[in-house]
């Protein structure tokens, strides 16, 4: 059952915390500031809607971060990288579907650029140097991925990763995949807005709430308390 899987995840995190397991928020925030991308698209003069899809560990935290970013119209938890028939939490959790827990970000390009979204992604949303895991969560479904929708997104993402690696911003090499977006499948309803609806759960308190706080501290001009 879906609820049993969520309970198992929460139990595992509590056990991990009691045994000094790493916290994704601290791991995902570098010791020094992450610079903005040198290559980016300009903000548009007219309001509109564009879409970005990223993955970086449990989608609860990624969604929570981008729901508080100015210019983001909506952020939806879901699955990308596998087929439609396998886009179910119970199956994705096996790590054998090709899916990653992902977040679809619909944003207004007159208020925020694609590069600025990636700046947030690499700064506070996750640790891009962890391979097939984020903190206490392990498996290919928790890998770091940028799913690009067009050549411009690919160019910005590739250039930014090269920039950060060349500057040795992180102690280890970035392992974030940059792959074409084939499809995005929204996750089950109980996964949507999970961090906002369950703020006192241990997993959210230790892993996701700090990410939103780091967003507020590091990106005051982009942070929105909505």
Question: Can you characterise this structure?
Answer:
The protein has helices at 2-18, 24-28, 59-66, 89-92, 114-125, 151-166, 194-197, 202-218, and strands spanning 50-56, 72-80, 100-107, 133-134, 137-138, 144-148, 177-180, 185-186. It is of the alpha+beta class and 226 residues long. It has one domain (2-218): Peptide methionine sulphoxide reductase MsrA (Peptide Methionine Sulfoxide Reductase, Chain A), CATH 3.30.1060.10. The strands form two sheets. Strands 7-6-1-3-2-8 form a six-stranded mixed sheet, with helices on one face. A hairpin with a 2-residue loop joins strand 4 (133-134) and strand 5 (137-138). It is globular, with a radius of gyration of 16 Å. 40% of the residues are buried.
Indicate the percent of residues in helices.
25-40%
Radius of gyration, whole Å: 16 Å
> What can be said about the biggest beta sheet?
6 strands, mixed
Q: Which architecture does the CATH hierarchy give at level 2?
A: 2-Layer Sandwich
Structure class: alpha+beta
Shape: globular
Strand order of the largest sheet: 7-6-1-3-2-8
Total number of helical segments? Answer: 8
Q: What is the count of structural domains?
A: 1
- Strand content is 15-25%
What string, H for helix and E for strand, traces the elements in order? Answer: HHEHEHEHEEEHEEHH
CATH topology: Peptide Methionine Sulfoxide Reductase, Chain A
Average pLDDT across residues?
89
């Amino acid at each position: 059952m879906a609820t049993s899987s969520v309970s198992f995840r929460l139990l595992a995190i509590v056990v991990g915390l009691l045994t000094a397991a790493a916290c994704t928020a601290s791991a995902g925030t570098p010791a020094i500031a992450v610079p903005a991308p040198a290559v980016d698209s300009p903000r548009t003069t007219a309001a509109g809607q564009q879409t970005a899809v990223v993955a970086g560990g449990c989608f609860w935290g990624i969604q929570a971060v981008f729901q508080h970013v100015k210019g983001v119209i909506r952020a939806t938890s879901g699955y990308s990288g596998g087929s439609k028939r396998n886009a179910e939490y119970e199956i994705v959790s096996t790590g054998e579907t090709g899916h990653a827990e992902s977040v679809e970000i619909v944003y207004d390009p007159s208020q925020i650029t694609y590069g600025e979204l990636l700046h947030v992604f690499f700064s506070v949303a996750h640790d891009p140097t962890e391979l097939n895991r984020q903190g206490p969560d392990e498996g290919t479904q928790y890998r770091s991925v940028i799913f690009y929708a067009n050549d411009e997104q690919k160019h910005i993402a590739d250039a930014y990763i090269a920039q950060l690696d060349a500057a040795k911003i992180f102690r280890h090499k970035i392992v974030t995949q940059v792959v074409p977006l084939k499809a995005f499948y929204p996750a089950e309803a109980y996964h949507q807005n999970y961090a906002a609806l369950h703020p006192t759960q241990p997993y959210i308190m230790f892993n996701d709430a700090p990410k939103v706080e780091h967003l507020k501290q590091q990106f005051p001009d982009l942070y929105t308390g909505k």
